[in-house]
Amino acid sequence: MKIDDSLLVIPELKKIFSSREAVQKSELRDFYYLHHPDLNEQAFRRIMYSLEKEKVIIPLGAGVYGLQTQFQTFGRRYFIPQLSTIALEISHEVTHLFPYTSYMIWETHVLHEFMIHQPGANQIIIGVDKEAANSVFNKLNENRSLNVYLKPDKFIMDRYIATNPDSVLILPLITQSPRMKVHGVVYARLEKILVDIFSEEERFFIFHGQEMINIFENAFASYWINAKTLFRYAGRRKVDVKIKKFIKTQTQIILPSL
């Protein structure tokens, strides 16, 4: 059932929040309770559904939203990756064969748009529970059309993986990694991808040097990136101080006050 447009008070919503990069769900709840004191939780959920359907707001993460006008003003987009057929098939296979195992996937080709020198290879990164990593590796390795590697080091990356068109890397999944869902697939958010390539130089050496600066500057310019999410995850990887120094001293990125 379509909700009454008068309940949405969209002009007032935009007036209050359009200059903000992100709005918490709790703030939206308070906003609508202020305008409709008798509003119950079910009605609020219907309002949120209508706002998303009409593309007034865009979900940016767990309980965090951006207004569409804000994206147009700042010229940035919400990061929605294009999955390769191989990544989609692997994700479905892992979900089917290991239903109780947490996993997350991302592909290095999503970084190519930020780079000057275009790599010829795409790596499909699958993070899984540490206890299941060997089992997932063995099962995927049964498919002889896949080049599957378990926690490859710099030597393996340089000698075997860097030149392969598509390689699958099985890595331990770090808890509380920023995630999203794309077509039902658990995918890494851009904040996680940036932190991972920064913190694992031996594994992702192809993205370091000047290309790391290009990647960060272009990613921040092109997409909405939650700095708090990025630095919180960087803290879990123990690179929060290092990555903040890198952004402030080697890039043109202006960080919001945290």
Structural class: alpha/beta
Largest sheet properties:
4 strands, mixed
Described by the principal axes of the CA atoms, the overall outline is globular
Number of helices: 12
Q: Tell me roughly what share of residues is in helical segments.
A: 40-55%
- Spatial separation of the terminal alpha carbons: 40 Å
Q: What strand order characterises the main sheet? A: 4-5-7-6
Residue share in β-strands: 15-25%
Output the radius of gyration.
Answer: 20 Å
Number of strands: 9
- Name the poorly predicted regions: none
Mean pLDDT: 89
Overall tally of structural domains: 2
Order of helices and strands: HHEHHEEHHEEHEHEEEHHHH
Describe this structure in words.
The chain is α/β, with parallel strands linked by helices and 258 residues long. Helix content is 45%, strand content 16%. It folds into 2 domains: 5-74, Arc Repressor Mutant, subunit A (Orthogonal Bundle); 85-250. It has 12 helices and 9 strands. The strands form 3 sheets. Strands 4-5-7-6 form a 4-stranded mixed β-sheet, with helices on one face. Strands 1-3-2 form a 3-stranded antiparallel β-sheet. A two-stranded antiparallel ribbon has the order 8-9. A hairpin with a 2-residue loop joins strand 2 (57-61) and strand 3 (64-67). The longest helix has 13 residues, at 41-53. The chain is globular.
